[in-house]
């Protein structure tokens, strides 16, 4: 067996994960600008958030989230009992000694933690994230250039089709429509194989441009297990001007 | 204070994280195709990996990694003691009952775990990751379309400048060179502010195209706290054909 047939280990990276903290309790220690960013991060992932920070240290955004009831709030400095029943801890305070103490307590209790600005006291780092509905794209430079990560994220966001997030929802809808057209459990493998064919046949731009009518037309090709090209699909919808009369340019057309 | 000045909470996302598992112990239960992918993921992040799986269930890639000593190997089914001193658990076995049992044990011991194909029994999901040296880009559709994530990842990889990963290393090098040119601790804030100006002034394409000579020329602008445009930089390097004789198009040129 040739050694080269398997991907080589690259090393030096992080394990990039989509952490599930929906309805989990996240403790944020500190109420400054960095804390404000962390709080938004975890609220966007549907966490239940407790902020511990003396009121005089609150930045306006944190104060706003407290006032709106988006987070629970404890108006004092951190105390060890704050860690009870907590699933994740994020600290952002200008007190290295207190931070280090919190990190040690978290490790004793096996709670995942990020001590801002102290890389060795972090189970995980944050990166620069582009969000578009169900789509999340995270850029990490593994600590080598946080501002560079922002540049790359902006460049990616500019180049993606405008409605990429929406396209994910549409593909999900296509899958649902397919289940209605071909509901049988025994159809499962054929359904899955056909959806894979669809994914392979269309570019990101095609998928983003697809509308409900296109999807209905496309579903007619499930029974014969075929996937016409996007231009072909459009042509069949009566836009025959764009259609040269032959089906030769259709992918999988029998 | 207007409410609209702060970003609105979007909800429904994951918390995308760069997990640090360098030299941490990851237990992989199972030795099939999914396990092979997981193993490569964690090896790329420099984890120490133990694979538990009867030898007859090993896929060729997993067998190869065992043979090469890239992972530690236990030739039997999972036993609870396998969880001792383990920081993360990934299971990929075709046995829902055994998987569920492992998940429960992990939760009792507060070990982060991913049970393949059982979303409710996952602390985290994997996504589609593009890797280019220090750069990692992760695409997640939050479970809405894993194949769509691959399409987006491929599209991003195609559109990024070819040497984007290398450019991160170069920006890191520029930072090092700057510390030699202006080593004082008291220069810290000016150095940081100037690096931010550099990041803001250049496009991703500029940064990817920059060579060592460009960086040396650029560093001459640190003292006056300026950042010339990339075309201007090239012009000053004797490529005067491309230079129109005026410095009017230079950013921050006093």
Structural account:
Chains A, B: One of its GO terms (molecular function) is ferrochelatase activity. The structure is a homodimer of 254-residue chains. The first copy, chain A, is of the alpha/beta class. Chain A has nine helices and nine strands. In chain A, the strands form two sheets. Chain A has a five-stranded parallel β-sheet, with helices on both faces. Chain A has a two-stranded antiparallel sheet with strand order 8-9. The two termini of chain A are 38 Å apart. The interface between A and B is large, with 75 and 74 residues.
Low-pLDDT segments of chain A: 240-249
Q: What Rg of chain A do the Cα atoms give? A: 25 Å
The global form of chain A is elongated
The DSSP helix count of chain A reads 9
Largest sheet of chain A: 5 strands, parallel
Question: What class, by secondary structure content of chain A?
Answer: alpha/beta
Largest interface: chains, residues each: A-B, 75 and 74 residues
Strand content of chain A: 15-25%
The quaternary structure here is homodimer
**What is the percent of helical residues of chain A?**
25-40%
**Order of strands in the sheet with the most strands of chain A?**
4-3-2-5-6
The averaged pLDDT of chain A comes out at 89
Distance between the termini of chain A: 38 Å
Q: Please trace the helix and strand order of chain A, writing H or E for each element.
A: EEHEHEEHEEEEHHHHHH
Number of strands of chain A: 9
Domain Siroheme synthase central (chains A, B): 132-159
Catalytic activity (chains A, B): precorrin-2 + NAD(+) = sirohydrochlorin + NADH + 2 H(+)
Protein name (chains A, B): precorrin-2 dehydrogenase
GO molecular function (chains A, B): ferrochelatase activity; precorrin-2 dehydrogenase activity
